[in-house]
Recover the amino acids of this structure.
């Protein structure tokens, strides 16, 4: 490996394992009293012996079903919790030492947790972060102005955070987390619960930030659009283990190989329409309800299939849309393949 390639790696994880220990508690008052004398200890292995590297300037998507170990890995990488075994290095630091210099160069944003002061306007939290991260006054002002304009929240800076909508608050969370211009950002579900326009704006904002600052992001998401539009590589976790890791382009070629064409018909689907569809031997479709048809086809064939449908049933179609497969279905298909 060349010297250049070695210095490009900003996150290095080797044989990382995290086990949580916890106790069961029986129900009710008698259960609580019983618990004082006898507690059953349980262990959950959330991350099992995983290894990977992330290069500077890349956006890596951590994908997996609920409980796969994504958040646990991000918490270890940001120094919030300690691993059980294995080696982690972020920007050359061991995260759990939580050195001031390290914390100044990273950020962790959790879509379902807030770092803002709930009863104060967001601008107060921004000034608090300015003090914590020792950001120069002029830099602070220019960065804040820039982000506020990009995210369209200028008029909301002086409103109490608890009065903001979910999407507005998420934009403020991003500003608070990025004011110190972190080089490595851990994003846990950044678009959870947001409408499509807000999701789109936040993705563009993040792309712009990475491009301009050569920052590195690891993000977890159950939203395929986040992965498709942001990530250049993908790591798939299942029960704490990495079952797939590749560049996003290869992932698309390997796994993300079908499209669903949804036809909304003007009238309930008749036998005659089904007959016309089945004339195309390889066409796989299912009907959903009275007048929805879902045709699944390979990516390369999707244009031909749309052309075929338009030729054969155009008069009957009220609406047509093309969708990528559902994220969880794709993950499940990889699990089955790996199994
Ligand atoms: N503090 C804890 N104590 C005990 N078990 C925990 C703790 N935190 C997480 N776990 C368990 O570890 C496993 C991995 O959890 P984690 O939050 O990392 O999953 P995830 O992939 O982020 O899931 P999701 O997509 O639902 O957010 C889960 O089975 C969870 O129940």
């Amino acid at each position: 490996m060349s010297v250049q390639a070695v210095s490009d790696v900003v996150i290095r994880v080797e044989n990382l394992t995290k086990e949580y220990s916890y106790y069961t508690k029986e129900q009710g008052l008698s259960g609580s009293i019983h618990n004082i004398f006898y507690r059953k200890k349980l262990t959950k292995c959330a991350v099992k012996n995983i290894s990977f590297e992330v290069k500077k300037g890349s956006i890596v998507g951590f994908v997996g079903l609920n409980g796969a170990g994504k958040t646990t890995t991000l918490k270890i990488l940001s120094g919030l919790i300690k691993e059980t075994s294995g080696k982690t290095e972020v920007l050359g630091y061991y995260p759990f030492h939580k050195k001031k210099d390290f914390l100044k160069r990273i950020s962790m944003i959790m879509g379902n947790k807030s770092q803002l002061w709930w009863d104060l306007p967001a601008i107060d939290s921004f000034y608090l972060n300015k003090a914590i991260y020792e950001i120069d006054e002029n830099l602070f002002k220019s960065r804040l102005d820039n982000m506020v304009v990009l995210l369209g929240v200028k008029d909301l800076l002086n409103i109490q955070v608890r009065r903001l909508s979910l999407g507005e608050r998420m934009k403020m969370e991003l500003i608070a987390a990025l004011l110190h211009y972190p080089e490595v950002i851990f994003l846990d579900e950044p678009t959870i619960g947001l409408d499509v326009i807000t999701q789109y704006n936040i993705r563009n904002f993040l792309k712009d930030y990475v491009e301009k600052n050569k920052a590195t992001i690891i993000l977890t998401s159950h939203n395929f659009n986040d992965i498709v539009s942001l990530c250049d590589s993908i790591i798939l976790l299942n029960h704490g283990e990495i079952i797939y890791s590749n560049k996003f382009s290869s992932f698309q070629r390997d796994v993300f190989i079908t499209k669903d064409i949804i036809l909304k018909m003007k009238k309930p689907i008749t036998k005659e329409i089904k007959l016309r569809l089945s004339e195309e031997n390889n066409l796989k479709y299912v009907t959903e309800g009275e007048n929805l048809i879902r045709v699944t086809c390979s990516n390369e064939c999707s244009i031909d299939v749309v052309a075929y449908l338009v030729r054969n049933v155009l008069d009957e179609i009220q609406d047509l849309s093309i969708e990528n497969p559902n994220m969880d279905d794709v993950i499940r298909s990889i699990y089955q393949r790996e199994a």
User: Anything to note?
Assistant: The longest helix spans residues 196-213. Confidence is low (pLDDT under 50) at residues 1-5. The pocket of adenosine-5'-triphosphate is lined by residues 20, 22, 44, 46, 64, 66-72 (CB under 6 Å).
